[in-house]
Amino acid sequence: MINRIFSKTHILEKALDATWKRNEAISHNIANVDTPGYKTKKVVFEEELAKALSRSEFHGKKTRDKHISIGSVSVDDISPEIVEIDSTKLRVDENNVDIDAEMTALATNTIRHHALVQKLNGEIQRLKTIINEGRR
Amino acid sequence: MFKSMQISASGMTVQRLRMDVIAQNVANMNTTRTADGGPYRRRLVAVQENIESIPFSQHLARSRDAFRGKGVKATAIVEDPTPFKRVYDPGHPDADEEGYVLMPNVDTLKEMVDMISATRSYEANVTAFNAAKSMAVKGLEIGRR
Fold first, then answer.
1. Of A23, A33, A36, which is closest to B131 when you measure between CB atoms?
2. Does residue B8 belong to any structural domain of this protein?
3. Does A109 touch chain B (CB under 8 A)?
4. Closest partner CB to B128 (pick from A20, A36, A106)
5. A59-108 pLDDT, tens per residue?
6. Is there a domain that residue A36 lies in?
7. HEC assignment per residue over B82-102
8. Between the CA atoms of A60, A66, A68 and A73, what dihedral angle is there, to the nearest 10 degrees?
9. How many domains in chain A?
10. Does B89 map to a domain?
11. How much is the pTM?
12. Which phi-psi region, left, alpha or beta, contains residue A37 (left: φ > 0; alpha: ψ -120 to 50)?
């Protein structure tokens, strides 16, 4: 029961972790904008989350932690993954950091983080109201 | 959580070092005598991605968490090997018998371009730092009334 109460905040928490990870990756890209041979790092998460949230009914039930998941993955099993973009080349020195794209991603990521925090606060507020039976 | 800020700080440090070296180059534009003898040689900063090294025993355990970046680091200050400029100036104290002086291989134009590039990169790092800061501050609001 208590797990189900926090299922929504749990997803938000995962997404918040991903925004922090992405912030690290973008900061790393920006710090290495002049490093010869450096390749852009990117965090992939939202697609995986969407897949996990819209998973089909068919999936193996896990009775132990070490079981391998069958069928679609659950939200608990996904984590932000870092991929290196090494197919492109932007400059003669093999560096492929697109500073405009990085700054845009940085701004988007910050706003996404703020939005998630706001949603999480709303969720916590909702739970508080329920616990107080609607009283203030 | 503070890793982002440290990464941005490392970027700022490197850009500031580049700026220092550029200032050194511009200041020594006309230096014909150095401690090593001969005119001043233009200097450049060599930068490299800074990656956290993990012990071999932890490689498998941490393979999923593939991001080990720690920002950027300056590895060396290297000298520009391009030849010196040979200028005819018989009145110069360092002129040879034919009246030619070897001048430093510093090109003001190049230095100015590098300086703008370093400034802009520094600013980009500052922006990234501020973004991380605003995220951290926003995170403190979680669960507050």
1. A23
2. yes
3. yes
4. A106
5. 777 788 788 777 767 777 788 888 888 888 888 888 999 999 999 999 99
6. yes
7. CCCEEEECCCCCCCCCCCEEE
8. 70
9. 1
10. no
11. 0.84
12. left
